[in-house]
């Protein structure tokens, strides 16, 4: 079958920008043709964070859904114009949406992604696949992470055992053993960049800690690190997934209290940043080491944090650590590929990752 063109749109938990990719896909390949990162308006980011903090009305929820739908449409339009591509050449757009809340456990599990797909299809004329996660949750799954199915697809030709670690707002791991007949393993290892971003925004008014420079100026506070690593999430068996509902400012304040100090009276601000970076590095390397893979491929924004990468390497000296090809685009490529899977009505191999009772066709089509 000939290759078809798909667009993937991803706006992750970091709220740092909207990633848009154009891919050519067939049953055995997914080739990145072009990509762009469309800026997340400052006001929209701040309104979303306020909503996640719980101060919101139903009217605001509806408005954010609309505003995100417009933003995603603009992001797609920017890519089409820059590349001089006719919308009619695109088979479909896969739009993940912006996660506002993700609680896959409990009596009424759900995962909420906003960004009205009706707006995207109405304005671009391209069919849109969205609402990917809820079918998996309906089947008892975590509804996340989904990247492992795509990692299995694109890295299937690697001739060694490999862990793929995506370091976004949260971090997730995929384990690809040499014997690919084994069950696919993947889960969220915990927080990635989200607490580092939150702490530096609060104390240095920067949106992120470039290359981990501020963290590097501090010292690890091992009492605080131990308190954080003692959190139940890190010892929980997979399937598991997490989000901002758990790893947020309140969680860090609780850890600082457990450490036995009011915020920063005994621990310097840069020491907290350094300790948060160590938390991300340690919670990732602990999981990679469990599977004894020869190689770890890093992707996501955290793979650009050179000090974080240095710490991950130092914590697992016997594992070859490298940055994955298309490290910035893999998450958005995942949703271009998931749109391909939905358009072709193919089930996605995720049940062993998410814990769902079965593999399913994921996503709803808007056309
Ligand atoms: N040069 C850099 N130095 C340090 N951190 C960086 C650098 N570049 C990016 N980052 C971090 O990466 C984050 C963005 O990563 P990414 O876009 O992968 O996360 P995301 O949007 O949450 O995605 P997802 O949730 O889908 O994995 C930024 O918020 C920042 O913390
Ligand atoms: Mg991002």
- Helix run count: 14
SSE series: EEEHHEEHEHHEEEHHHHHHEHEHHE
Distance between the termini: 23 Å
What is the C-alpha radius of gyration, as a whole number of Å? Answer: 20 Å
Derived structural class: alpha/beta
Bound molecules: adenosine-5'-triphosphate, magnesium ion
Low-confidence stretches: none
Principal-axis shape equals: globular
Strand content: 15-25%
Mean pLDDT: 95
Helix content: 40-55%
Quantity of strands, as a count:
12
The largest sheet, given as strand count, sense and whether it forms a barrel, is:
7 strands, mixed
Features of the shown structure:
367 residues; alpha/beta; binds adenosine-5'-triphosphate; binds magnesium ion
Please characterize this protein's 3D structure.
40% of the residues lie in helices and 21% in strands. The chain has 367 residues and is of the alpha/beta class. Strands 1, 2, 3, 4, 5, 6 and 12 form a seven-stranded mixed beta sheet that branches. Strands 9-8-7-10-11 form a five-stranded mixed beta sheet, with helices on both faces. The structure holds adenosine-5'-triphosphate and magnesium ion. Magnesium ion binds next to loops.
């Amino acid at each position: 079958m000939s290759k078809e063109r798909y667009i993937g749109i991803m706006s992750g938990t970091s709220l740092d920008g909207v990633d848009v990719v154009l891919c050519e896909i067939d049953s055995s390949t997914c080739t990145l043709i072009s990509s762009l990162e469309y800026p997340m308006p400052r006001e929209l980011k701040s309104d979303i964070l306020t909503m996640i903090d719980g101060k919101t009305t139903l009217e605001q929820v509806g408005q954010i859904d609309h505003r995100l739908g417009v933003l995603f449409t603009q992001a797609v339009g920017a890519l089409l114009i820059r590349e001089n591509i006719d919308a009619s050449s695109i088979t479909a757009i896969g739009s993940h949406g912006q996660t506002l809340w993700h609680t896959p456990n409990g009596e009424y599990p759900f995962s909420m992604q906003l960004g009205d797909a009706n707006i995207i299809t109405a304005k671009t004329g391209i069919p849109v696949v969205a609402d990917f996660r809820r079918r998996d949750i309906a089947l008892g799954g975590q509804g996340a992470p989904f990247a492992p199915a795509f990692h299995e697809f694109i890295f299937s030709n690697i001739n060694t055992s490999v862990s793929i670690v995506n370091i976004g707002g949260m971090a997730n791991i995929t384990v690809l053993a040499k014997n690919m007949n084994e069950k696919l393993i993947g889960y969220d290892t915990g927080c990635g960049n989200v607490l580092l971003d939150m702490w530096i925004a609060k104390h240095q008014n920067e949106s992120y800690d470039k290359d981990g420079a501020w963290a590097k100026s501090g010292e690890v506070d091992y009492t605080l690190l131990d308190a954080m690593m003692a959190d139940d999430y890190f010892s929980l068996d997979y399937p598991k997934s997490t989000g901002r509902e758990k790893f947020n400012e309140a969680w860090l304040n609780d850890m600082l209290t457990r450490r036995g100090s009011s915020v920063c009276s005994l621990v310097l601000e840069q020491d907290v940043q350094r300790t948060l970076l160590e938390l991300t590095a340690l919670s990732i390397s602990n999981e990679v080491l469990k599977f004894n893979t020869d190689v770890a491929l890093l992707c996501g924004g955290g793979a650009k944090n050179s000090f974080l990468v240095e710490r991950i390497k130092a914590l697992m000296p016997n594992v070859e650590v490298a940055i994955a090809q298309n490290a910035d685009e893999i998450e958005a490529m995942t949703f271009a590929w998931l749109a391909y899977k939905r358009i072709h009505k193919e089930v996605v191999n995720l049940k062993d990752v998410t814990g769902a009772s079965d593999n399913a066709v994921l996503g709803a089509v808007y056309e």
